[in-house]
Amino acid sequence: DAGVTQSPTHLIKTRGQQVTLRCSPKSGHDTVSWYQQALGQGPQFIFQYYEEEERQRGNFPDRFSGHQFPNYSSELNVNALLLGDSALYLCASSLESRSAYEQYFGPGTRLTVT
Amino acid sequence: QKEVEQNSGPLSVPEGAIASLNCTYSDRVSQSFFWYRQYSGKSPELIMSIYSNGDKEDGRFTAQLNKASQYVSLLIRDSQPSDSATYLCAVNSFYNQGGKLIFGQGTELSVKP
């Protein structure tokens, strides 16, 4: 049973650059959520994708955008990177038909902005 | 007031003892409650989910939910050094569709041999 996968594992970018992070959901799952986790904090919800549309969004600026593909995989794009964007970016997948919304996380992408 | 609050810790317990982790939430219409375990440098791992008032047991873990008091807890019996990690409480209010999880800041647990 394939779990959630994310790429790349680590990334170092310069302030002002753009970055794309990728996620493949757990086998059988159709919903992907993205979270940002700063050191010592709980994950913060960025947005969620279902049926290739952004369904819900947290308090993140428009510099953060995403996409979901027909195979349910997803991308997170961040433009005009700031030093404060340095964090662990987590992708979580779930199954829409399960109203409990249990979400399973991938290993994360560690983004460092210098 | 934070939406989800946890004891800041760190919580230190001896091996074999019961570890008790607590969480309170502010949104009364919250429906689903989760506990995640996160080892240092790793991603969160779902260990318990609970939806109804009362207790739910899974092995050495027991989750307790009291919606009237807006309180959820996690008990770990016979604590082992391998249980040393940060435990995250997460709450979902999917009444507005979607599955946004709101997390507490986490409680660091240290189990001493």
Describe this structure in words.
- The complex is a heterodimer of chains A (114) and B (113).
- Chain A is mainly β.
- Chain A has strands spanning 5-7, 10-13, 19-24, 31-37, 44-50, 53-57, 64-68, 74-78, 87-94, 104-105, 109-113.
- In chain A, the strands form 2 sheets. In chain A, strands 2, 4, 5, 6, 9, 10 and 11 form a 7-stranded mixed beta sheet that branches. In chain A, strands 1-3-8-7 form a 4-stranded antiparallel beta sheet, with no helix packed on it.
- In chain B, strands 2, 4, 5, 9, 10 and 11 form a 6-stranded mixed beta sheet that branches. Chain B has a 5-stranded antiparallel beta sheet with strand order 1-3-8-7-6, with no helix packed on it.
- In chain B, strand 4 and strand 5 form a beta hairpin.
- The termini of chain B are far apart.
- The A-B interface holds A 31, 33, 35, 40-45, 48, 50, 55-56, 58, 88, 90, 92, 94, 99-108 and B 4, 32, 34, 36, 42-46, 49, 51, 88, 90, 92, 94, 96-106.
Mean pLDDT of chain B: 92
Q: Indicate the low-confidence ranges of chain B by residue numbers.
A: none
Structural class of chain A: mainly beta
Separation of the first and last Cα atoms of chain B: 37 Å
What overall geometry of chain A do the principal axes of the alpha carbons give? Answer: globular
Proportion in β-strands of chain A: over 45%
Rg over CA atoms of chain A: 13 Å
Assembly type of the chains comes to heterodimer
The profile of the biggest β sheet of chain A is: 7 strands, mixed
* Amino-to-carboxy terminus distance of chain A: 37 Å
Number of helices of chain B: 0
Largest interface, with Cβ-Cβ < 8 Å? Answer: A-B, 28 and 26 residues
Largest sheet of chain B: 6 strands, mixed
